[in-house]
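Repro case for the chain-ordering regression, as requested:
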Amino acid sequence: MLHSLLSVLPTDYPCKENIHFFEAIDSTNTQAKTLGMQGAPHGTVLLAKRQTAGRGRLGRTFHSPDGQGIYLSMLLRPGCHATQLMHLTCAAGSAVCDAIESVTGLRPGIKWTNDLVFGKKKLGGILTELSLDNAGNVLFAVVGIGINCTQKSEDFPDDIRDIATSLAEITKKNIDIPLLTATILQSLLAMSDQLLSHREDILAQYRKDCVTLGKEISIVTPSSLRHGIAADIDQDGALVVDFSDGHRETVNSGEVSIRGMYGYLS
Ligand code: BTN
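-- result from build under test --
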């Protein structure tokens, strides 16, 4: 896999020597954070054929079967304060959509904030994690990408079979995993170059990709269940919601369900 990837990366790709490949790993994000603490440079990539403890947002598991998906993490050192990086997950999401579109001809949507979707099903996800100093400066960020590539419906575990899909299932084509991986890496590096200077453009693209906007949603936190309409994405990538009681609020956490997606109906 590493050899195939290196052979399709352009010769001027800047960080080839910092790409680490694993046949199996617990989580590329977990190990990227360990390398980050040890001083690994900007652009370091961890890539795995399978993960034994792949993680998603809200403490969920990301099912990462052998050779059927892309599981990678890129370490970034943007040199800024955490408050300037709140839109990182959105930026990574649209960057991955660019890569998938360029390789497969299909552009996924994004269910706020970090789920890659097609139709009503989940295709993959983004997990970003920050390491900060005491003043809130970003020591490093880890951007984790998981994409279901070759699974058929029967390959998914029972609990996610009805809500998960893969690129092969959607496109009915073979997926060139090394080529898509190489394209994602280039897209993520390009995104990291523009992250601070092109925030407006990044968020404009994210608003186009985000399938949540304009939809009826429910927001679940440990203490509440509320309903509203997703009205906008703000400058930090947070979701602006018009609640059914008439007030508008910006939401940055909790589980957001869209009516009609992932089996959510009421
Ligand atoms: C989500 O579904 O909430 C996000 C899923 C992110 C999964 C990727 S796979 C590579 C990286 N390593 C992890 O443990 N998680 C991310």
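Ordering looks correct now. The pocket of biotin is lined by residues 27-29, 51, 54-57, 60, 62, 71-73, 114, 125-127, 144-146 (CB under 6 Å).
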